[in-house]
Amino acid sequence: MLKNVKxxxxxxxxxxxxxxxxxxxxxxxxxxxxxDALEVISYNMPAYKLNGMLLYFAAHKNHIGLYxxxxxxxxxxxxxxxxxxxxxxxxxxxxxxxxxxLIKKIIQFRVKQNLEKAKSKKK
Length: 123
Known about the structure:
Helices cover 42% and strands 24% of the residues. It is α+β, with helices and mostly antiparallel strands. 26% of the residues are buried.
C-alpha cells in the first residue's frame, strides 16, 4: 500500500508505467460519467465524492481494483461474473482490457444512487 499520496496524478505516477495508461483511462471514465464528483485521496487511493463517497480505485500487483461500494457490485453481479468480486470490489486483471461499457454503467448507477440518496435526505 502506498503512503503519503498527495493527489491522483501523484498516485498514478507511482505505479508501473505499463499500468498508468489503464489508470488514466479509468480516471477519465469516472470524470466523464461523474463530472461533478470531487476527486480526492482516501485510504491512499484515488476516490470520488458526490453527496457522499461514490467509488475508489487502486492498482494492485495483478489487477486494478474498482470499489463502487456493495450496491455497485450487487447491481451488476450478472455482468461481473467474468471478474473476481467481493462485497464492494471488482478486480480487472492487468492482462485484459478494461470493460469500458460496464464501468460506465457502474459509475452512472452510483451517481444516480448518491443523488437520489441526497434528495431523500432533503425531504
